Structures are given as structure tokens and as C-alpha cells.
From TrEMBL:
<keyword id="KW-0812">Transmembrane</keyword>
<feature type="transmembrane region" description="Helical">
    <location>
        <begin position="87"/>
        <end position="106"/>
    </location>
</feature>
<feature type="transmembrane region" description="Helical">
    <location>
        <begin position="58"/>
        <end position="81"/>
    </location>
</feature>
<keyword id="KW-1133">Transmembrane helix</keyword>
<protein>
    <submittedName>
        <fullName>Uncharacterized protein</fullName>
    </submittedName>
</protein>
<feature type="transmembrane region" description="Helical">
    <location>
        <begin position="31"/>
        <end position="51"/>
    </location>
</feature>
<keyword id="KW-0472">Membrane</keyword>
Length: 116
């Protein structure tokens, strides 16, 4: 399983690099699409740690599609649409969600007590 996860991250990273560098390659479109679905799905799936695996996969996939559509809609409404900008926006959104999840699960953070 870790080998498959590593391969998926590699394919997503190659897709992001191909899109950001604007390289002409037949692999650019499928790898970039894979990145645009994988990055938000991973962030959402990490936040849903207690769900069963199938439910987490379904919710993460639907959430990834919704996040991509919201980014595209916002960029189109603001007349800022570009492929590079979309990839960067999705990457930043996904990284922020992963960072917030990691900070929320930080083992050494102080817990608030409810006793007065």
C-alpha cells in the first residue's frame, strides 16, 4: 500500500510540474487531472480519520470535485482563470487543509480543561 501511495504522489507531482512549467507532453493532461483530484481528496481524507475507508474515499472524492469546481468558479468569476493559477490555487487550498488537520492532531498541544 505505501508503494501505491508513493506512486500516486509521484504522478500527481509530475502533473503539477508539467502544468506549471507549461511543457508540451501527452502525459500533461491526465497527470494534471490526477493531481487536481488527488491533492484535495488527500487533504479531505486526512481530515476524516474516523470514517470507515469506503465512506472516507467517497466523501473525499466528492469533496475534491467540489473544491475543484469552487476554485474554477471563483477564478472565472474574478476573471483570473489560467491553468497555472488553478493548479496553484488547488495546491494551496489542499496544503492549507492538510496543515490545519496536522495542527489539530498535534500530540503535544495543550488541552483545555473544563474545570473552573
Amino acid at each position: 500500500m505505501p508503494l501505491c501511495a508513493g506512486a500516486a504522489v509521484g504522478v500527481g507531482a509530475v502533473g503539477a510540474v508539467l502544468a506549471l512549467a507549461d511543457l508540451a507532453s501527452p502525459l500533461r493532461a491526465p497527470f494534471t487531472l490526477f493531481f487536481l483530484l488527488l491533492a484535495p481528496a488527500t487533504a479531505i481524507g486526512a481530515a476524516l480519520g474516523r470514517l470507515d475507508p469506503l465512506g472516507r474515499a467517497v466523501v473525499a472524492g466528492a469533496g475534491a470535485l467540489a473544491a475543484d469546481l469552487l476554485v474554477a468558479e471563483a477564478m472565472l468569476a474574478l476573471h483570473l482563470w489560467s491553468v497555472r493559477g488553478g493548479v496553484v490555487a488547488v495546491a494551496v487550498l489542499s496544503a492549507a487543509a492538510l496543515l490545519l488537520t496536522a495542527l489539530h492532531r498535534w500530540p503535544g498541544r495543550a488541552r483545555r480543561s473544563r474545570t473552573p
